[in-house]
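Progress report, Aim 2. The chain analyzed during this reporting quarter is listed below.
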Amino acid sequence: MEKPKVAIVCNSYPTKINETNQIFIKNLVIELKKQTIITDVYHNPVYNYWGNASNKKNIIANFIKYSFFIIGISRLIFRIRAYDIINPHGVMISGFIAVLLKRFFDKPVALHIHGGDLNIYKSSSIIYKKVYNKTISDSDIIIVNSNDIKNKVQKLTGVKPNKLIVISPGIDYEKFYRMDSQKIDRHKKDFNIDKNKTVLLFTGNAIKRKGLDILVDALKLLKTTHLVKIHLIICSEGPELKKTKDKLQDIKALKDSVIYLKKMDQSELRILYNISSIFIFPSRDEPLGLVGLEAIACGTPVIGSNIGGIPEYINKNNGMLFEVNKSKELAKRIMSIIEDPNIVKSLTKDIDKKKSEHDISVSAKRLINIYCDM
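Predicted structure tokens for the chain:
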């Protein structure tokens, strides 16, 4: 069967001024092209000029963003007959536009749901829910990144289970891997990290959903004897970062052992994962959590919230779980690895990388099979 030509539609996408924006979509596009699938991406051109547009939610900002999005989609409309399939990422607004194009141009739609739109479904207006449900109903196939999202979509929209397929966005194991110990020691030296300290890493947006405050509250519960053995790295940007810094300043024993970094590209993140003893993933909700999988791919165990898609890949062979919002429980997990470094060593030695389920090349092959069956 001849391989189809695919139009990828999404709102945000990596650009020169924000190279990390929805990078997992770009990674998947690159992998599809490696496997000889012709893909063109149609994203909101506002991100070429306004890198952090997603952080602005007021009326004026939304008007600007949607106006630019329509301009970007107009390019697709003029070229729509060149494609066999439309593959939108996100229900609102990419997916809705895709099903409208399907109606006029008879192009099948493979809809990707990553969870962002779904998180606000319950609290949204009737119009939002009708548009969401219509998009789900009119899509030919729906691809979700975890069983958690699959179950939520079914429950909220009533879509038939056979229309939903779980495919991981995928991890590129050529980009995320365990470095040799000498390189790790050199990088620790670059960051002035004592190699005898337990290095805790948080990376993600400084927003309530990501739970950075839960980590800070957990650290405040630790004794000084534990805190002096910790080096904390926070790789983050967002509205709650200043509040976090203020709270951490009150923890005197950590004063000279906290590193703040802005968002980094994948090669820089690989270094952070490798120099860390444990990746802390305290989200209040998480559809899947690729950062947790990236950490594991680099041989770094994860302490993650027992919520959403996180428990689908965290197990006794690659990390620990704690109940969401329970900073006291997270503090106990951190305390246990400080008191017994062999816990981390045992997890790291034969860490379960979940490679068979989350290898991006496998995800791309599964996606190609879906395209060819449409």
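The chain has two domains: 5-170+359-373, 181-357. The domain at 5-170+359-373 is CATH 3.40.50.2000 (Rossmann fold). These observations will guide the mutagenesis work planned for the next reporting period.
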